[in-house]
Design brief:
Blueprint (H helix, E strand, L loop, with lengths): L5 H4 L10 H4 L12 H9 L8 H5 L6 H9 L3 H9 L5 H7 L3 H4 L32 H15 L14 E5 L3 H12 L3 E6 L7 H4 L8 H14 L2 E4 L11 H7 L2 E4 L5 E2 L12 E3 H9 L15 E5 L3 H13 L3 E5 L26 H5 L2 E3 L2 E9 L2 E9 L5 E5 L2 E4 L3 E3 L28 E3 L2 H4 L4 H19 L2
Parallel strand pairs: 1-2, 1-4, 2-3, 4-15, 6-13, 7-8, 7-13, 8-9
Antiparallel strand pairs: 5-14, 10-11, 11-12
């Protein structure tokens, strides 16, 4: 349970971030590594709460009190083994997960006045939104990085092969998690990826300032050394790639993990003007050519508007600032959330409260309750965005020569012929992730719609268990 009374003796301290000026000058990760002594203290804050609601908050069901207690005791290698038993890639969740487990932490229940504590960039500053919650996300990262540094993460190929082959289409987190566990069970897992390099959105969609790609490559090297086959440049169902029928014929099972990349569009006059780009095109195109980004979507010196206030929009904001945009405005259709939970949004549910991402700390202007009505152009190029403030009804014209559409996603762009879809256009599955076609499974965003990385990991793990059970019958 950590230190008796540790949650009283020590307040929540989140890892620090590099100064804004420094991080805007490069593409390295924003956060800095926490002092191991502070990590140990934070682990010691985990209390014996009887019912660990953090399990309810985490789709993976990570044994958080257990690995926190092991860190408190200095038993780091055991902490890693305990964490890795449920989480295939804690170095990813420790960097990218929004940590619903922390929202569900019993220590997140706190009087509203505690939420007024000051915040800042340096380490050793109380967190604003969840002043008391155990820093679970930071603990996961610290455990994973210690494990790699100490050499505890080593390839462990299966001792016995079953003779079964499973195709995994898509090399994002869901696909990689499924392939890793299936390979560990003794099956031959073959990952097919349409892009030139594996990783899906981990490589092409998430900026380096949130995830440096050597972290991904390090994990991929372990998977391949364990026996996972990764074949890139293969688009299943395309004229120059294998058909879905061929894949099913050559494998004992096929798992579809291709995500939900179909973007929600902006249906207003002027959308066809030059200068407007979908968020994923803006984020992925540079990484398909060179890193750091230097590509056709460079917005240096431009007046940028990002439509969409979510994580993708925030990533676009941080990228535009690093590219040297003259100005950046991030617009959200909905009103600004409240600073604290409403009575209808009680703990331990995910708190619908106002947040500021690391990119939003770095600059730009945020607008809320704003509806875009049309785009203005000159000589075929975008020059301004027109909209209405929903609170006042006032019409607004914003100068804009680069518009990034981060409006979310509506589902998969392609699915295997004949597979049943749900009412949203996603692949329909049963509780074991099986689709309407024998031997075909759907996991991650292609099945549940755009969601959190922790859900991708959870579904990859659980689907692998289901497929393994089916292959052994």
């Amino acid at each position: 349970m950590g230190k008796v009374g540790g949650f009283i003796a020590w307040e929540r301290i989140v890892p620090g971030k590099r100064p804004v000026g420094e991080r805007l000058a490069d593409w390295r990760e924003v956060t800095v590594d926490e002092d191991p002594a502070e990590t140990t203290r934070q682990a010691g804050r985990c209390m014996d709460c009887g019912i660990p609601f953090c399990h309810q908050g985490c789709p993976l069901g990570n044994p958080i009190p257990e690995f926190a207690d092991l860190v408190w005791q200095g038993r780091w290698s055991e902490a890693y083994r305990r964490l890795a038993a449920s989480n295939e890639m804690p170095e990813m969740t420790g960097r990218l997960c929004p940590a619903p487990c922390e929202s569900a932490c019993v220590l997140a229940i706190a009087p509203a006045e505690l939420r007024a504590l000051p915040t800042g960039e340096a380490g050793g500053v109380p967190s604003l939104v969840l002043p008391g919650a155990v820093t679970i996300e930071a603990l996961e990262k610290a455990i994973a990085e210690r494990a790699f540094a100490e050499g505890w993460v080593v390839p462990r190929p299966p001792r016995v092969r079953t003779g079964k082959r499973v195709a995994v289409v898509g090399s994002g987190l869901a696909g990689l998690a499924a392939a890793a566990r299936l390979n560990r069970a003794g099956h031959v897992a073959v990952v097919y990826e349409a892009a030139a390099r594996p990783g899906g959105l981990l490589r092409y969609g998430i900026p380096d300032f949130k995830l440096e790609k050597h972290v991904l490559d390090r994990r991929l090297a372990v998977l391949e050394a364990e026996g996972v086959e990764i074949r890139c440049g293969v688009t299943v169902g395309a004229p120059d790639g294998p058909s879905w029928e061929q894949l099913r014929a050559e494998h004992d099972a096929v798992i579809v993990a291709t995500g939900a990349p179909r973007a929600r569009e902006l249906d207003v006059p002027g959308r066809d003007l030059g200068g407007a780009v979908l968020a994923m095109d803006y984020l992925t195109e540079p990484r398909r050519s060179s890193v750091p980004p230097a590509a056709s979507h460079d917005v240096r010196g431009k007046h940028v508007i990002v439509l969409g206030g979510g994580d993708i929009g925030s990533d676009c904001l941080g990228t535009a600032l690093r590219q040297g945009a003259a100005s950046v405005v991030q617009i959200e259709l909905q009103p600004a959330p409240p600073p604290d939970r409403s009575p209808a949004n009680a703990w331990p549910a995910w708190p619908l409260v106002f947040r500021t991402s690391s990119s939003q700390e770095e600059g730009g202007v945020r607008e809320f309750a704003f509806r875009t009505t049309h785009l203005e152009g000159q000589d075929g190029r975008l020059v301004a965005l027109h909209g209405t403030r929903l609170d006042s009804g006032a019409a607004v014209r914003l100068p804009c020569d680069a518009l990034i559409l981060a409006l979310g996603f509506t589902g998969p762009t392609a699915t295997p012929p004949g597979v049943a879809l749900d009412e949203r256009g996603n692949i329909a599955t049963d509780a074991s992730y099986a689709t309407s076609l024998p031997g075909l499974y759907g996991i991650g965003d292609v099945h549940r719609g755009a969601s959190l990385i922790v859900w991708a990991l959870a579904e990859g793990r659980d689907a692998a268990i289901a497929v393994d059970a089916a292959l052994r019958r």
